[in-house]
Amino acid sequence: MTTIRQIPENLVREFDRLVQDSRTALIGTHLNPDGDALGSALAVAFYLESRGLECELVCHHAAPENLRFLPGSERFSTEVSRGSFDFGVILDLDSTDRLGSVANHFETCSRVVVIDHHKPHHEPGDLRIIDESAPATAVILTRLMTQLGAQFSADIAVSLLTGIVTDTGSFRFRNTTPEALAMAALLIESGADINLVSEEVYNRKSLSSLRLLGRILENMRLESGGRIAWATVSFDEFEQNGASDEDTEGFVNELLAVRTVQIAALFREPRRGRVRVSLRSRGDFDVAAVAQEFGGGGHRNAAGISFERDLSQGAADVVERLKSCWESSRSTSRKG
Question: What is the DSSP string of 186-243?
């Protein structure tokens, strides 16, 4: 039988003591939050409030439309109502600069806890609960709450399930583990509706979103013998289709769906001169390593970059690096 892994007891005890000694908490996550970021932050808020704490949630960006079904998603703000907090919790974040405009609020916290599954760029926080092998931050939180003896309310359960479902690609990605599946069963038993999560996250698209996807697929380019697929979406194309960047959620996976493709890159210009890049890969190719060369980060098979530069030149530079890394990895593989 698959069991839920354990967080070191000293970390669990320290977190528990911090909760016991506190009355207020600030909870935040990264720019352009995804399901794991929002779901994890909300789950922490619901848990701490069940223990009598007053919580506020901050994020540089509001919840995207496909995640607004989450209970409490409207609670995220860029402002806080008090001058200080007993402690802060930062979730799903490998670098504090990705907090954006809300970063300064955590300077008012007496202590800061970081809970994450990314390889850190640096090590902020007074207490760090990190597991790079975990498929989602929500997985780490499910372990933590289980060890703390938490009661999984329906709101906590659906928040955590959303984090697990989205970061495993609805259990299709390589990072899906037996533990993640066991946790999903536990959370469904606790009241989470997996049909609701799947329907809202994956099956509800705006007309402008689908039109933009058609444009992306039509303009997709292949490199390295069909092993690399990439496409761009300019600011003008967003405007022409009445779409926003959140409408492109998951589109990079459509590029990766081509049978020969091992690496996919989608370059978007949601505002002039601001480029966001989503990278995905199959197998052992590490797109996070390439992302880090351009100031980004993420996981081996899923990473991202944001930079201020010309869309065409930025895309050309990243694709050229992907091609170089791909050829190098193939050469090494053949020698081995």
Answer: HHHHTT--HHHHHHHHHS---HHHHHHHHHHHHH-EEETTTTEEEEEE-HHHHHHHT-
pLDDT per residue as tens digits for the range 57-79:
999 999 999 999 999 999 999 99
Interatomic CA distance for residues 63 and 84, integer angstroms: 24
- Per-residue confidence band for 335, with pLDDT thresholds at 50, 70 and 90: low
Model confidence at 145: pLDDT above 60 = yes
What pLDDT is attached to residue 125? 85
Torsion of CA 170, 175, 179, 181, to 10 degrees: 20
Identify the pLDDT of residue 298: 84
Structure tokens, 236: 């003008």
Give the orientation angle of helix 35-50 with respect to helix 137-147, to 10 degrees: 20
Tokens 């802060």 — which residue? Answer: 88
Per the CB < 8 A criterion, the answer to whether 262 and 285 are in contact is: yes
Q: Is 93 left (phi over 0), alpha (psi -120 to 50) or beta?
A: beta
Tokens standing for residue 80: 């806080």
Beta strands in the chain (DSSP E): 24-29, 54-58, 85-91, 109-116, 127-130, 221-223, 228-233, 263-271, 274-281, 297-299, 302-308
In this prediction the pTM is 0.88
Among 171, 99, 84, which Cα is nearest to 136's? 171
pLDDT above 60 for 334: no
pLDDT in tens, 273-283: 999 999 999 98
Q: Pick the closest to residue 38 from 204, 197, 266, 189 (CA basis).
A: 197
SS3 130: strand
68 Cβ contact list (under 8 Å, min separation 6): 74
Q: At residue 144, what are phi and psi to the nearest 5 degrees?
A: -60, -50
